[in-house]
Specification:
Order of helices and strands: EHHEEEHEHEEHEEHHH
Helix content: 25-40%
Bound molecules: ligand 4GX
Number of helices: 8
Largest sheet: 5 strands, parallel
Strand content: 15-25%
Number of strands: 9
Shape: elongated
Strand order of the largest sheet: 2-1-6-5-7
Structural class: alpha/beta
Distance between the termini: 60 Å
Radius of gyration: 24 Å
């Protein structure tokens, strides 16, 4: 998998990409991240990349030419076609695990990071899509680009290593994850649930599933509508509903 990232601040990426799993994926050649400084494509004498907005108003807008020249340089290097060219912005398609899984099928992804108030609208004609990582406003598209690289990269076979599989992840199952515990058996008076020490694999699996269902019901009931629920899951949730209806909480 290859990412080309167009940005005015390539140095923002060095920390997150030089540690842990992404670093290892790059070292193992499972992943290539190519950072392209948009300023290198500024052709005017002061190498400016932004300007005041037509029509007036506060803030600056990124000029179209440096971004489009950078995109054309990437296209040239890739010998013509390049797969998705994605602008990170609040107007984009909401980024979900489903979208991450779709992008993980690609060989080559170009991410365009806007800064300031945004990018000249005419750049959008050179992109194939737009992604938003959430309904809040950031100072630039760099953090969203890192989020996309991270979520997509961990779905590439081998990136997480042999033993960890992303298919059991929360969201892959459509539910929030069950609680996790490690040693010690008792931490400051808080014990590990007995069932996890039992060695009874079927009971442990059922307990985890029910904890996942409970958590999802309480924290993200919207997810239950689309989760892949088994007959056992439905029975558990119905029992819970019956129990709650019969519960007498007084006045
Ligand atoms: N999820 N921002 C992008 C500048 C901008 C605006 C319009 C291109 C077009 C964001 C988000 C996000 C702030 C990144 C505005 N660039 N991006 N930036 N939330 O808030 O993706």
């Amino acid at each position: 998998m290859q990412f080309d990232i167009l940005t005015l601040f390539p140095e923002m990426f060095t920390g997150p990409f030089s540690a842990s799993i992404i670093k290892r994926a790059i070292e193992r050649n499972l992943l290539t991240v190519n950072l392209i400084n948009i300023r290198d494509y500024a052709r005017n004498k002061h190498r400016t990349v932004d300007d005041a907005p037509y029509g007036g108003g506060a803030g600056m807008v990124m000029e179209p030419e440096p971004v489009v020249l950078a995109l054309e340089a990437v296209r040239e290097k890739r010998g013509g076609d390049m797969g998705p060219v994605i602008l990170l912005c609040p107007q984009g398609e909401p980024f979900t695990q489903r979208l991450a899984a779709e992008l993980a099928q690609e060989e080559h992804i170009v991410l365009v990071c806007g800064h300031y108030e945004g990018i000249d609208e005419r750049v959008r004609a050179y992109t194939t899509g737009e992604i938003s990582i959430g309904d809040y406003v950031l100072t630039g598209g760099e953090l969203p680009a890192m989020v996309v690289v991270d979520a997509v990269s961990r779905l590439i076979p081998g990136v997480l290593g042999e033993e960890t599989s992303p298919v059991t992840d929360s969201f892959a199952t459509g539910l929030l994850e069950h609680p996790h515990y490690t040693r010690p058996r008792e931490f400051r008076g808080a014990a590990v649930p007995e069932v996890l020490l039992s060695g009874h694999h079927a009971r442990i699996a059922r307990w985890r599933r029910e904890e996942a269902l409970l958590r999802t019901l309480v924290r993200r009931p919207d997810l239950l509508a689309t989760a892949a629920l088994t007959a056992d899951d439905r029975r558990f949730l119905k029992e819970l509903a019956t129990y709650l209806m019969r519960l007498d909480l007084g006045d």
